[in-house]
Amino acid sequence: MTMPERNDDWRAHLIDDDDGICRILAATRRIAVLGIKIDPAKPGYFVPEYAQRVGFEIVPVPVYYPEVTDILAKKPKVVWMQLGISNDAAAEQLARAGIDVVQDRCLMVELRQRSWKVTRA
């Protein structure tokens, strides 16, 4: 007899603590930036630029008609929603698919707090 799967196991993929953020950053080398901007005054420009300066590879993702199902099809390890952005329904859908989700946290702030530098292999 197999044990029934717990209905709330997906919640472990909702990352909202410092340990989880550190784990994600340590395991990440490539960051897809949804809604990247070309205006240097916008966070959609200077946040990924900062991440690139400290050693992350940036993958620009234009967002014209965002669909969570499109993100699910790409099967990323992590989806990071910047400061001020959260969508609990989308986060649950992603987490149930086994994708770690960070909501309402600024990547640049998190990197700076940890004086993050990616070591190149």
Notes on the protein architecture:
- The protein is α/β, with parallel strands linked by helices.
- It has a single domain (10-113), classed as NAD(P)-binding Rossmann-like Domain (Rossmann fold), CATH 3.40.50.
- Helix content is 36%, strand content 15%.
- The chain has helices at residues 18-27, 43-53, 68-74, 88-96, 107-113, and strands at residues 14-15, 30-34, 57-61, 78-80, 100-102.
- The longest helix is centred in the middle third of the chain and has 11 residues, at 43-53.
Per-chain topology:
Layout: E1 14-15, H1 18-27, E2 30-34, H2 43-53, E3 57-61, H3 68-74, E4 78-80, H4 88-96, E5 100-102, H5 107-113
Parallel strand pairs: 1-5, 2-3, 4-5
Distance between the termini: 45 Å
Would you identify the CATH H-level superfamily? NAD(P)-binding Rossmann-like Domain
Sketch the topology as an H/E string, one letter per element: EHEHEHEHEH
The secondary-structure class comes to: alpha/beta
What is the helix fraction of residues, given as a range? 25-40%
Number of strands: 5
Note poorly predicted spans: none
Strand content: 5-15%
Taken from the alpha-carbon principal axes, the silhouette is globular
Strand count, sense and closure of the main sheet?
3 strands, parallel
Domain tally = 1
| CATH structural class | Alpha Beta
How large is the count of helical segments?
A: 5
* Rg value: 15 Å
Query: How do the strands line up in the largest sheet?
Result: 1-5-4
CATH topology: Rossmann fold
The overall pLDDT average reads: 84
CATH-defined architecture? 3-Layer(aba) Sandwich
